[in-house]
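User: Predict structure, ligand zinc ion.
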Amino acid sequence: MKIRLLLSCLTFLIAACKPAEQPGATAPSDAPTAVTAPAAKSNQPQVLVANYPLQYFAQRIAGDAVEVRFLAPKDEDPAFWHPDETAIAAFQGADLILMNGATYSKWADKITLPESKAVDTSASFKASLIQVNETSTHSHGPGGEHSHSGTAFTTWIDFKQASLQAKTVRDALIRLVPAAKQAMETSYDNLQDELNTLDDRMSVLSRRLVNQPLVASHPVYHYLARRYGMSLKALLWEPENVPDDKAMADLNGILSGHRARWMIWEGTPAQESIEKLESVGLKSVVFDPCGNVPESGDFMSVMKANVEALEKAFQ
Ligand SMILES: [Zn+2]
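Assistant: Predicted complex:
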């Protein structure tokens, strides 16, 4: 093992000095791994995914038939993450790349992915993606400044769209491992049943939401709002920051023409934030879009908790 490691380091050093001249040069996956991109663990087909919902769908559908790898660090928004060279090499060497589409992975504009391997999981509803005009930029986490202008990309919180994305994931996985077709179809059917149940519950709830102006802490709920008839205006707040005077002024600006009683947060806000909102007549409810791996549970348990929280708020 030690010798293999040493050899692979040596080969890497040589390769690094003379990248083009090495006949049969070491594949990028043999290079030392960076912290952000753990190496493949198996000889199974490698499926790389752009976000956590796609990781969850692919794992539920494929089980052990493939190795699903999601490389964005836990504390970053995968939409605005910048993959390092090792992560880029892993994407380029993958057997299948599941992208969210809807301009989700901002990094994908600058990097050429092998066209035959990359699948846009939201392509089937491309014509109905929502365009957003948002002038201001802001930052959350290490990804730097960004804006939410352009195509809204939190596609999967419309649970019908989530089903369509999962279906595209299923079809791509079956093309990759045809022998597992039957098992994958069954797993997809079970997943689709659960997504349909969420969609049904939200549709029932939408009858109560239709006359409720709402405020969102961040502009990520366009598809949720559209499918379930929510009248929602968004701020650029983060759950971990307590709103300052400027933030409260932004909120009051919205409230003057949009008499909301509830604020929807991406994550649990600080107690101080909850109290500040209560002082202007707003209650807080969490709907976590779950773009990255949740602290506990999984995609389905987080979505069930989201729907339950809304049902409780608007009973
Ligand atoms: Zn943002």
